[in-house]
Write a structure and sequence with these properties.
- A four-stranded parallel β-sheet has the order 2-1-3-4, with helices on both faces.
- Helix content is about 35%, strand content about 10%.
- It is globular.
- The chain is an alpha/beta fold.
- It comes from Streptomyces incanus.
Length: about 210
């Protein structure tokens, strides 16, 4: 089982999930508020900032996917992209069997070939959240400190696969900065991509 109770929203690598959730009220930033000397624009609401950040992270991830596809096209390689399945389970007694089934079905739909299946047990870390900072904080050890994720990076560097497929970003990190670093490590150091079954979405701080 995944440690995150998420509902499958569909693949996203080549068809990003729409961020719009319906028309927002006019105070969300469409018109100026009157002032003595000049108009004052309402502050951008926090949900909009989270949406913007989620879009940035998704675009950054998809950038490396396109690089992998372009390299494959240059080699005129018509073999399916190989991916490693990865899951983060909530406790030592938990098994990622349900995740494996979801990841296998997603891989088949996308035309990927799954290689190794790797998982880690979520290890909580001490964390403090300051509401005024409006920033999320990771609640588990960073992915590059987990044995399963390190093995995934090693196999990618050795050319045993071109990417990693996971259920959602929270299997990697709920912290935006950690998640960004994990994507960059895959793309720049492993020349690999990350595929999410559930695309990045704005979340409440954890």
């Amino acid at each position: 089982m995944s440690p995150h109770d998420a509902v499958k929203l569909g693949p996203d690598v080549l068809s990003p999930v729409a961020l719009g959730r319906g028309r927002e009220k006019q105070t969300a930033g469409g018109s100026a508020a009157a002032g003595k000397d000049r108009p004052r624009w309402p502050r951008t609401p926090l949900p909009a900032k989270r949406q913007y950040r989620a879009g940035q992270l998704r675009a950054f991830r998809q950038h490396f996917f396109r690089q992998v596809v372009d390299r494959q096209d240059l080699r005129k390689d018509d073999q399916p992209l190989r991916v490693l399945a990865y899951s983060l389970v909530p406790s030592p007694g938990a098994h990622p069997d349900e995740d494996w089934g979801t990841l296998q079905a997603e891989a088949e739909q996308q035309g990927y070939a799954i290689g190794a299946r790797l998982h880690d047990v979520a290890v909580p870390v001490t964390t403090t959240y300051f509401p005024a900072s409006r920033a999320s904080r990771g609640v588990y050890t960073p992915p590059w400190q987990r044995p399963g994720w390190r093995e995934a990076e090693r196999q990618l560097r050795d050319g045993l696969a071109e990417g990693v497929i996971v259920l959602d970003r929270h299997n990697i990190s709920s912290d935006d900065d950690e998640y960004h670093v994990a994507i960059r490590r895959l793309g720049e150091h492993c020349r690999a991509f990350l595929h999410l079954v559930i695309s990045e979405e704005p979340i409440a701080p954890t």
